[in-house]
Amino acid sequence: AAMETSSVSIGARRPPGIVRQIRREERRRDVRSVTRIRASGSKAEEYVVSDRTKRLLEGCCKIGPSETEGKPQAGGAGGGTTLEALRRVDGVWRSIRNMPEGDAAGPAPVFVTESSVRLDTNRCDYDVAVCGGTLGILVATALQARGQRVVVIERGPLRGRDQEWNISRPELESLVALGVLTQAQCDEVITKEFNPIRCGFYDGESGAPSGDASAIEPAIVTKDILNTGVKPSLLLDAIRGNFEAKGGVVLEKTAISGISVRPDGAELDTSPLDGGDGPGGITARLVVDCMGFASPIVRQARWGQKPDGVCLVVGACARGFDESANESADLIYTTTDITAIDQSKGQYFWEAFPAGSGPEDRTTYMFTYIDAHPSRPSLADLLDDYWDLMPKYQGLDSIDDVELLRVLFGYFPTYRDSPLPARWDRITQIGDASGMQSPLSFGGLAALLRHLPRLTDAMEDALLSDLLDRDCLAAMNQYQPALSASWLFQKCMSVSPGTSPPDGFINKLMRINFGVMSSLGDEVMRPFLQDVVKFGSLGKTLVTMTTREPMFVPQILIQAGPGPIVDWFRHFIALGAYDLAAGIAESPIAAPVCRALMGTAPSRELIEKARNGEAARSEADFAWDFAVLDKRQKFMLRRKVEAWKWGSGRDYDDQHA
Ligand SMILES: Cc1cc2nc3c(=O)[nH]c(=O)nc-3n(C[C@H](O)[C@H](O)[C@H](O)COP(=O)(O)OP(=O)(O)OC[C@H]3O[C@@H](n4cnc5c(N)ncnc54)[C@H](O)[C@@H]3O)c2cc1C
């Protein structure tokens, strides 16, 4: 799991006053001494968890019975508990920092094998096996709504985690059109809507005190962006209900331990865990890997490859904030300059929003972008800073003034060659496993909702056209210049080892960038805040930044380095080319030609219509087919046209029309 949470109840508990008093007494006893643990891993080092972190994590779980007490924890990004979870996640993060690269890593652990021996079956058990049930259940339900026979296999319980996902309402409502959720269910899973949404950056030169957000003028104040709080457990429960009601199969507490890819299907080795309900093996025509960052399939595909960037995040949902000031959210905020973090340097960013569990409850995340150099800090190091900085950021005297309901910590890896290119026939990645989410926000749900209509069409097309080889699957997850261009932004927001930019450099960059976007208006700013990078908007922003701050641009180039800048420029040009191609493909003259070349993708709906004698409509649907390309070429062209549109961010215009 890339992300863990220490969770406790928001129900029965001691009165906040008593909790605060106990906490204050404990704090007085708190010693700044640390517990030193000899870490395991390829490179021995000291792993330090401060007594304060231990006390707060342990206390967090003592305040009341967990909302999930008696129920097994959900897995994946965000599942888990307490100090043990912190040690475990830090252990994985340490092993990533110290991992051998390339040939030095030795042979990859084998999870996927390929064989030319056909499956001994007339028909696979399922059309699609979705591995991993967090975002996997969304994908499964969308495919099932298209008439596919789908199974979801989840190692843990399929129940969502105790945290909140923030998205924009139209993104969530896109599930209605896909038949995944009803409008009424959409309204039910929303636990909170809040406004306004702010972005702001500390300016040390202004004389403002560091640490306190109230002293920092926001660079942007907007509304209705990522302002909808969704509870994963409610969302997943509702979708699962819809999936099972229509005959979908969920196998919980069932781990997949290997996949054999054959010419006519894939065979999944499944082992029921701890009372789980899976059979010993399952066959499916297509395997959808939704097993997150830690997917064993991705591990094999990326063996020996260190992430190019990492976002470390720690945070908490806490009770006891001033209710009258708990309506707005910060999308991204800084309250300090670049600071020392253990042996490294980095810039801390903040996100904060009201939680749906109560009017005094607020979630605050502190995150930093770094690389996976061995000297980088642990999550325990970040938590130590969080206990000090969060109260200042939120105008509290001390961390003991609020009641911790949940503590969260995790790492999000980024690879520059994302989304992950398909490695095998019959296996495709979706969700965090695919690397399709923005390297800046890591909003995996938001990214999936944006791409799900396209991916559902593409997977249905691949299944009905029987085009499930590696090249066809790679065409579904192909290069997206907008995603690749975003990678440089992450790099500019981090401090590379051996470099020492001025302490205020990243804040200045952010202030200029967000100030320019704000002045260019909603058309530029709103897509960017929702992880959509568009050629025109980016171009305008860069030109305006250069004219307004000509002396600062060379500093950006020096800080990023010539290699990444050249690389980024390539993606920027590609973004322009994709935008042009998508514009032409959608133009009144070219669109019919394009459609006639691509033909109409097969779908169960069309097949049913034809079967039911609705020939007239079916013919109309299938009309305009020049029939100059074969089935495979048409499939590839359909994927290319989608790649132009989604890769250039033009899909945003449809969703937000
Ligand atoms: C604290 C936090 C806050 C976040 N906030 C937001 C937000 O506001 N908006 C947003 O869009 N995103 C947010 N995200 C990101 C979002 O949670 C992730 O993008 C999302 O959970 C990814 O889902 P996934 O299904 O791809 O992977 P995961 O959540 O990692 O789930 C993978 C699943 O696969 C299962 N699995 C793994 N191995 C096996 C196996 N061998 N066999 C069977 N099953 C297996 C795991 O048990 C797990 O359930 C947040 C993440 C965190 C941690």
Automatic annotation (TrEMBL):
SUPFAM superfamilies: FAD/NAD(P)-binding domain (SSF51905). It comes from the Eukaryota. Gene3D superfamilies: FAD/NAD(P)-binding domain. This is Uncharacterized protein.
